[in-house]
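Incident log, entry 3
Record: HTH-type transcriptional regulator RipA (265 residues)
Problem: checksum mismatch between cached and fresh output.
Input:
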Amino acid sequence: MPKTRHVDPLFADLQVLTTRRGAWLPDGFYLDAHRHAHGQLVYAAAGALATTTDHGTWIAPADRVTWTPPGFEHSHRFYGRADARVVVVPKRMCDDLAGRPGVFAVSQLLREAILALTGRPETRAGAHGRLLAVVIDELTETPEQPLHLPEPDDDRLRAVTDLLHADPGRSSTLAELGRAAGASERTLSRLFHAELGMSFHRWRTILRIHHALLHLTNGVSVTATAMMCGWSNPSSFIAAFTDVVGQTPGRYRADHCEGPPRPPG
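Fresh output:
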C-alpha cells in the first residue's frame, strides 16, 4: 500500500470527510494509507467503498459498513458518487468490537444511528455518546459478511493473484496460472489454503464479486457484469453473487445504482 500522502486536488472534500465525519465524494476518490489511534467505521450511504489493509481488501456496498481497529494502516477508495460517513470509536470503546478489520451488515437501526451521528450537530449533551453506544451494540449482534479478499505473502502466490487482479475475468486454470508464475498447481493449491484460508476457486470468486459490486454500482447491467467478471452465463453469476452478498445482483443494482450506466474502469 502507498506509504506517502499526496496532495490531492480534492483536498477540500477530504477535509470535510475527516473533520465533519461526512461528505459526498466523486467516483474513484482515494484516501492514501494512514492509521489512527482510535477505531473507525466508514459507511457509504450511497455508492460503494473499498478498504485495504495489509490483511487484504474489504468491499462495502451501501448495506455494509467497514470496521478498522486502532493502529491498522489502511486506505479507502470510493465508487460511484459516494455519501461517505465516518464514525470515530474511542480506543476505550473498541474492546467490544473485533480486533481486526472487517465488514458488517447494516441494519435499519444501525444505518439511522450512523446517519444521525454524522449528519447533524449534537444538540443535547451526551447525545452522540448514546448514539455511539447503540452503534456498538448493533455491531456486536451483527455477523461479519464474507466480502474480505485476503492477500498473500508468498511470492509465487502473489504472482498468481497479481495476474487475476489485472484481469478478474481471466479464465485460466490454476495449472495454467502456475506455469506463468513458476509453481505447480499442487503447490499453489496448498498455499491458497495455508495462507489465505480458502480455495483458489473461492478466492477468485470473491475477487470477481468485488469487481461485480463496483460495476453494478456504476449502472452496468447484470448480464454485462457477468461477462466482464468472467462468468460464462448470467445464471451462474447470479447464484455466486447471491451466495456471497445475500441478494441477487439485479436487486443490488436496483437498490444501489445511481443514474445512467457509466463506463467501467
